[in-house]
Amino acid sequence: MKKKLGLLLVGLSVAVLAACGEANDVDETNEPAGDEEEQTSDVVDGETIVFGLTTWTSTEAPTNIAKLILEEAGYEVEFSMLDQPVIFEGLVNEDVHFFMDAWLPYTEAELWSRYEDDLQKVATSYSDVPLGWVVPAYVEEDSIEDLVGNADKYDGRVVSIDPGAGIVTLSEELIAEYGIGDEYTLTTSSEFAMMAEAEERIAAEEPVIFTGWRPHSMFAKFDLKFLEDEKEIFKSDDVYVISYNGIEDEYTRAYEILSNWSIEVADLEEMMLKYEEDDVPFEESAKQWIEDNRDQVDEMLGN
Question: 37, 217, 219, 242: most buried, per Cβ within 10 A?
């Protein structure tokens, strides 16, 4: 509509300029509509995609990669820093478009069951990743059952991450199932605070129990072991990119790009370790990952 109006208002001037050999001064928007549509049919013109982002490094690393890939496709990208349950609500309300770190079918089963009628799995980031309670390899206990009667050794505490996270919900279930609520208390905080306490205790070679999962730099930095869970409260999960139903019609190109997403766990753990030990920003590591995996990125973009 804008083009037609412009042509009507300045058509005579354009004709005169063209006759005088000054056509190069004419704005490119005066190209035929058919040619423009052919050239821009696969180009995104500044649409904004919002990613839900937690403070977990397992979320930050892949989300920064996805951001750069979508920006290369022409999108504007924003992060919305939220607690995980709020991200699921944001997806349902369509205030958030994608979340790169959904652990299913087990860890986030409660959240998924609440919202699954409105949400969809877009892609599998990586598969068969473990999680649970971890301890330093130097402690004697090897299983949850071994913790019974040894609460004093661990100050009666299990340190975890943000309330509402799937691993916290499962930890609460584990405490109930094993009947150790009189001995152990689950302490929730940020991932940063959890790791700060774990590192302090490990540096002093003291016993400590905290929640762990892969990918995470903790397994590259420390000699850790998962406590055996005989009741199988914790199970290995797949990690998905998720969104709301219908996004494939609203943001078709973004959906198609991210539906071809995947990454190796080792790549994420390397990014996390560089961030924590060398202060390398995730966006910088993301740029390097894209450079190292250019063929995969080009395939995602359809290049």
Answer: 242
CB 185 within 8 A of CB 156: yes
58, 268 Cβ separation under 8 angstroms: yes
Q: Report whether pLDDT(1) > 70.
A: no
Mean pLDDT of 90-95: 97
Q: Determine the pLDDT at residue 164.
A: 84
Asked if residue 45 has pLDDT above 80, the reply is no
CATH topology classification for 48-129+237-301: D-Maltodextrin-Binding Protein; domain 2 (3.40.190)
The pair phi, psi for residue 120, each rounded to 5°, is -145, 155
Taking CA atoms, 233 is separated from 98, 171, 176, 230, 238, in Å, by: 28, 8, 11, 8, 16
pTM of the predicted model, to two decimals?
0.75
CB–CB of 54/100 below 8 Å? no
Provide the Cα torsion 172, 173, 174, 176; round to 10°: 90
Closest CA to 262 of 293, 283, 303: 293
Cis peptide before 105 (omega within 30 of 0): yes
DSSP reduced 3-state for 162: coil
Protein fold of 131-226: D-Maltodextrin-Binding Protein; domain 2 (3.40.190)
